[in-house]
């Protein structure tokens, strides 16, 4: 048993039991869980948040991932049904309680995460944390664009968060402005949504400092449904959204994510 396990489990050992010997009821002793984070490191992540939760027990810690390769992050946990998670890619977003929250007015971060429910029964248990893509990248293409396109976009939804355990979308007011980046591209990131989410795309005309005049609104939920976009997919696909300003219409093409292009420095 690794020395680090003795340190990690100290708090739980002191609160749950005075000692654990082979003659005692081992169900009262902690289980030492190793969360293997190698896959996150291979995907280019240097830091992240690991968490464990059960009734009466919660552990969450921000860690340097490379430090825990190859042995894994060790946690002393009670021997009962537990939830585990590892979340990476957060910058503007934050974790509040057990929810990844996107601040109002900004796009999502490129969130990659792992979640699992497990029952530790022995003295040791291993979990293999595999990152999964929790965001959809939306690229905007302008149909017959003007030389100096004066408009900007805003994406709205009634879901603005994601539970770290179970990865269920959480209700909230999401709205993100979409301006051209340094390359003149219009792009945004959207955190995993509920299939029932009410997504809308506003086309706006700037009329002053932080003031806009709404030109029209497109039902983005309907546009995505028309191409059978799957919000329940383990790794979310990206989409290309062609905007026909003259007709006030959009068309959608799904860009399947192949698992080999995590966008750590996506230009928005």
Task: Kindly summarize this structure in a few lines.
With 268 residues, the protein is mostly beta strands. The protein is built from four helices and 18 strands.
Per-chain topology:
Layout lengths: L2 H6 L1 H7 L14 E6 L1 H5 L4 E8 L2 E8 L8 E5 L4 E7 L5 E3 L2 E3 L10 E7 L5 E5 L3 E2 L1 E8 L9 E12 L5 E10 L7 E6 L8 E9 L2 E9 H6 L12 E7 L4 E7 L13
Parallel strand pairs: 1-9, 11-17
Antiparallel strand pairs: 1-4, 2-3, 2-5, 5-8, 6-7, 7-12, 8-10, 11-14, 12-13, 12-15, 15-16, 17-18
Walk me through what this model shows.
The structure is a single chain. With 268 residues, the chain is mainly beta. It has two domains: 3-132, Immunoglobulin-like; 136-255, Sandwich (Immunoglobulin-like), CATH 2.60.40. 9% of the residues lie in helices and 46% in strands. It contains four helices and 18 strands. The chain has helices at residues 3-8, 10-16, 38-42, 220-225, and strands spanning 31-36, 47-54, 57-64, 73-77, 82-88, 94-96, 99-101, 112-118, 124-128, 132-133, 135-142, 152-163, 169-178, 186-191, 200-208, 211-219, 238-244, 249-255. The strands form four sheets. Strands 6, 7, 12, 13, 15 and 16 form a six-stranded antiparallel β-sheet that branches. A five-stranded antiparallel β-sheet has the order 3-2-5-8-10, with no helix packed on it. A hairpin with a 5-residue loop joins strand 12 and strand 13. It starts with a helix and ends in a 13-residue tail after the last strand.
């Amino acid at each position: 048993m690794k020395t680090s396990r003795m340190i990690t489990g100290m708090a739980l050992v002191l609160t749950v039991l005075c000692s654990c010997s082979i003659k005692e009821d081992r169900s009262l002793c902690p289980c030492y869980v190793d969360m293997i984070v190698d896959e996150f490191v291979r995907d280019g992540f240097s830091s992240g948040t690991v968490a464990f939760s059960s009734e009466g027990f919660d552990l969450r810690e921000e860690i340097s991932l490379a430090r825990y390769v190859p042995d894994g992050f060790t946690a002393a946990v009670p021997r009962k049904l537990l939830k585990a998670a590892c979340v990476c890619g957060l910058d503007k977003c934050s974790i509040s309680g057990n929810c990844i929250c996107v601040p109002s007015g900004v796009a999502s971060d490129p969130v990659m995460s792992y979640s699992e429910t497990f029952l530790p029964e022995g003295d040791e248990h291993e979990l293999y944390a595999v990152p999964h893509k929790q965001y959809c990248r939306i690229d905007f293409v302008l149909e017959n664009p003007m030389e100096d396109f004066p408009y900007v976009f805003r994406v709205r939804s009634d879901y603005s968060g994601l539970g770290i355990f179970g990865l269920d979308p959480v209700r909230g007011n999401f709205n993100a402005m979409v301006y051209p980046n340094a390359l003149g591209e219009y792009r945004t990131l959207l955190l995993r949504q509920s299939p029932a989410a009410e997504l809308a795309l506003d086309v706006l005309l700037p009329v002053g400092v932080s003031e806009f005049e709404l030109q029209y609104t497109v039902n983005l939920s309907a546009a995505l449904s028309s191409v059978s976009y799957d919000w329940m997919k383990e790794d979310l696909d990206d989409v290309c959204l062609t905007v026909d300003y003259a007709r006030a219409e959009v068309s959608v093409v799904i860009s399947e994510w192949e698992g080999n292009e995590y966008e750590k420095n996506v230009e928005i």
